Write the structure tokens for this entry.
Amino acid sequence: MRKIVSSWDRAAFLAVAARHWPGGDRVLPRLSRSADHGLLWFGVAAGAALAGGRPARRAALRGVASLAVASATVNTVGKRSVRRLRPVLDVVPVVRQLSRQPFTTSFPSGHSASAVAFTTGIALENPAWGLALAPLAASVCFSRVYTGVHYPGDVLAGAALGAGAAFAVRGIAPTRAQLAPPARPRADAPALARGEGLVVVVNAGSGQRAAGVRTDPVQEVRSALPLAEVTGYGQDGAGEGGDLGKVLESAALRARELDGALGVFGGDGTVNAAAVVARRHRLPLAVLPGGTYNHFAYDLGIESLGDACRAVEAGEAVAVDMVRMCAGGGEEAGWFLNTFSIGAYPELVRVRERWAPRVGAWPAGVLAAVHVLRTARPLRLEVDGRRRRLWMLFAGNCTYRGLGLAPVRRHDLADGVLDVRTVSGGPLARTRLLAAALGGGLKHSPVLRTARVRSLRISGIRRGTHLAYDGEIAAAPGELTLRKENEALVVYRLPAEWDLRGRGV
């Protein structure tokens, strides 16, 4: 049987070598060389990460991880287990042959393993993107036979190994389609076909516009939801509607007249303002991600305007928690949907926002972190009646994944708790925390403390201290109480069947 398979393999190789392939001599050898050491795929991943949003970065990371696993397996197991010699080049036209011939054994094809691993990894995250890359991956695989450096069997084995590597990575790091739909419990909200009954406030000065997106967000929303009523809120408070609070209030009153819903296009700060208004008017809220980070929208499974439109038209909604912030005497000081912090982090945000217009958001974040680590001083606070010296206090609305002070994501937006994390301000606290993080022992570091509570009281706050909530900075009152409001808001989310089908493609 082995001889028969080997005979077929050689016959197929000879058939490819003997046939004339129009255009192949110019394209395929170059394509094959471009994939050396995975450079072609790393270039694709870098382009996707830079040009795309969060979904593209996630897909690129999965593709690169799959490629790395496939490459390691080929070089440590495959090549050493089957020491097959490379094909003899006598039958291959010289114009097709590579200028530098590989010196490793032939089985399996590492280029094919990398191509299929990267493309399968992308496809597991987003089938449409994987389908778009499939012709390129297939061309790289074929180029290895065409240039005479592999038999077809080598290529097929490498492709199978690459696909297996991608599925192995998925077993370790599940895709979004495998994860349980976030946010529960379900709630009633009207299904608004083509946006009829939806009143949307668009913040035209949101993060995506600042990041270089050239499209008009107002027109973009009107095109996606042609029957919705759309109001623009311009940069620096100018534009069609004027003051954001008044615009949202007017939109909410109109949505109540229509028995519809309030919509908002913008970042987390804009969504926060809309959520407060929607809660007060008992209206469902449609979140259309238009900011730099869009944490709340992503936790709802909504990563694009198209996702939000599908959620609105399907009438798929859930009830989520909010957190009320009250100053001394019970006076309301605001609400948050995502996170609250006091200490070093608000200072980091303030510095980052000041530098971002000049150097960009990501470099500004790095520079701000360095600046804060060098200059920040611990705060003396009273937390639930206990005097503490802290570098930072973080509180999340519901439980966040991740052990450190950079929480990743929530899978339940109605669990009834505050996720509280504090960093002690004792001697060498920052150094000890960094060492624990680098050594993988952050969970057990005495510097970091965590708790799950329903309310939190912070007092003894010094005048001039700032706090941050949902990405916004504000002056902190002398005393502050954070209190959970369970299932305070109804929001549209991406229908679960769309998420499980690979975001509807």
Observations:
- Confidence is low (pLDDT under 50) at residues 209-213, 236-241, 436-442, 498-505.
- The two ends are 42 Å apart (CA to CA).
- The longest strand covers residues 479-492.
